[in-house]
Structures are given as structure tokens and as C-alpha cells.
Design brief:
The strands form two sheets. The chain has a six-stranded antiparallel beta barrel with strand order 1-2-5-4-3-12. Strands 6-7-8-11-10-9 form a six-stranded antiparallel beta barrel. The radius of gyration is 46 Å and the shape is rod-shaped. It folds into two domains: 119 residues; 155 residues, Thrombin, subunit H (Beta Barrel). The protein is built from two helices and twelve strands, in the order ααββββββββββββ. The protein is 38% helix and 25% strand. 23% of the residues are buried. The chain is α+β, with helices and mostly antiparallel strands.
Length: 281
């Protein structure tokens, strides 16, 4: 077996020793200079300060960096805290605003109900809010928050401060469905204000989307005019008499007087109301 001398390993080991000795010497010089920088001997003191001057520069630079970093993170934490506080304040203000709006809406709703009560004070009325509306191509109905438990029955008249809305067409324990006068299945016996003559007001499939009604069965010799008001006649079982229903906005003449009809605008804008009254008796 041949022995091979490791010259490269020896060189590396020697290099490491030299680096270690040199580094130790430099550290020793800096330590010595640091210890002697306050020496009474001016030469030694000046020499020591010259030696440690680079260390001072690096030390001051690092100190400044760490100080600025500390200030940065401190300010960032402060900004984040202020941001969080502002976000919480905004949430509280939004909640208060929603609460205020809710109170205003409640007050407005109560005011409208009070107006209905004043208008129909000679009737026994229960007041209700509209829960939701049906939106389809055929019917015109909505659901209210009163039902059997509140004394609501089928065919009771439903009104608004401005006039007739419709009738109760379905009753549950706590809710009811109102079929409005705009529904194509609906018809109301009315009298014309200027002539005091009867006619029939009907919902129409083509007119309901325009919030309009069709007046038919007009007397042959009835002298009707634009802006004539219509009121319930009291005939039938659904509606008491003298409730405002609508006004004539257009008269359509056919080939003869039998085919004559009129377009009527309801007194109540049914698409916009949110409160109604149900006439109990």
C-alpha cells in the first residue's frame, strides 16, 4: 500500500491558521485601541482613536439603522391602531345611521297609517304593512302581515289614504293575500262623479303594467269627460260605497256607443305603497 502525502490539505490548514491569527490580531488591536483611547498620552490616545474610527462609523451607521427601524415599526403599529380605531368608528356610525333610518321609516309608516285612520274614521280598520309582492305576467297581488288571528276574512276591502287598493283574496293565520284592482280578474262597481251613473271598472292585462284600469259598461247617453272621478257604488259584497277609486284619463269611442270605454288612473299608486288598511266591517 502506497502512502500519499496530502499537500492540499496541509495548505488549507495552514491558510486557516494564518486567517485565524490575523483576525485575532486585528481584534486584539481594536480592543487595545479601544482601551487606550482615553490614555493620558496624547500620541497613544490619538493613535487609538484613529484605529477605532472605522468601527465608530460602522457602529453609528448600524445604530442609526436600528433606531430608524424601531421608529418605523413603532409608527406603523401606531398607524395600524389608528386605522383600526377609525374603522370601528365608521362601523358604529353606519350602525347608528341604519338605526336612525329605521326609526324614520317606522315613524313615516305610523304617520301613513294615522292618515288612513283619519280618512276612514267611520270604518273599523286594521292597519298592515306589505310584506312582499308577486311579480308575474298575469296577477297583481301582494301579501300583508295580518291574517285570521287578526280578524281578517276573505273579500274584505283594502284601502290606502288616497283610495281603494283591492280586496282580501286569501287568508292564512298570520298573513293574507291582497288582489289589487289592477289584477285582470278584478272588477269594481263604480259611479261617475259628474253624472252619478254606474259603470264597471276592471283590471286589464295590457294596462296593469302602466298602472291603469279600463272603465266599461258606460251608459249609452252618459256624458263622461276627462278627469271625472270614480267612487265605489257600494253594490256587491266587497266594497263599501264612496271610496275614491280613480279618474278618467282617456275616452275611447268605438264604432257605436256600446263599444265605448275609458282609461282610468287609480287614485293609489299601488306599486309604491307600503302600508294599507283592511276594512273589517
Amino acid at each position: 500500500m502506497k502512502y500519499r502525502y496530502d499537500f492540499d490539505g496541509k495548505k488549507r490548514k495552514k491558510k486557516h491558521i494564518i486567517i485565524f491569527v490575523l483576525f485575532s490580531f486585528i481584534i486584539a488591536v481594536f480592543i487595545t485601541a479601544f482601551l487606550l483611547k482615553e490614555s493620558n498620552n496624547s500620541f497613544i490616545s490619538k493613535t487609538s482613536n484613529i484605529v477605532i474610527y472605522p468601527v465608530k462609523i460602522v457602529s453609528n451607521a448600524l445604530g442609526s439603522v436600528f433606531k430608524n427601524a424601531g421608529v418605523y415599526f413603532s409608527n406603523k403599529e401606531k398607524v395600524n391602531k389608528e386605522k383600526e380605531n377609525l374603522e370601528n368608528e365608521v362601523k358604529e356610525l353606519k350602525a347608528k345611521l341604519l338605526e336612525s333610518n329605521s326609526i324614520l321609516e317606522e315613524n313615516e309608516s305610523l304617520k301613513k297609517m294615522l292618515d288612513i285612520k283619519k280618512t276612514y274614521q267611520h270604518f273599523n280598520i286594521k292597519y298592515s304593512r306589505i310584506l312582499y309582492r308577486e311579480h308575474d305576467n298575469w296577477s297583481k297581488t301582494f301579501t300583508i302581515d295580518l291574517g285570521k288571528n287578526d280578524g281578517i276574512k276573505l273579500n274584505q276591502a283594502v284601502v290606502h289614504n288616497d283610495g281603494l287598493v283591492g280586496y282580501i283574496s286569501k287568508v292564512n293565520d298570520t298573513t293574507s293575500v291582497v288582489t289589487t284592482i289592477l289584477d285582470p280578474s278584478s272588477s269594481v262597481s263604480v259611479v261617475i262623479s259628474t253624472t252619478n251613473e254606474p259603470a264597471i271598472l276592471q283590471g286589464d292585462l295590457d294596462l296593469k303594467s302602466k298602472n291603469e284600469l279600463k272603465l266599461t259598461f258606460i251608459q249609452l247617453d252618459s256624458d263622461i269627460s276627462i278627469a271625472d272621478m270614480l267612487y265605489t257604488s257600494g253594490l256587491g259584497t266587497n266594497y263599501p260605497n264612496s271610496i275614491p277609486v280613480g279618474k278618467i284619463t282617456k275616452i275611447v269611442n268605438g264604432k257605436n256607443d256600446i263599444n265605448r270605454y275609458a282609461i282610468v288612473e287609480p287614485c293609489v299608486d299601488i306599486k309604491k305603497i307600503s302600508e294599507v288598511g283592511v276594512i273589517i266591517n
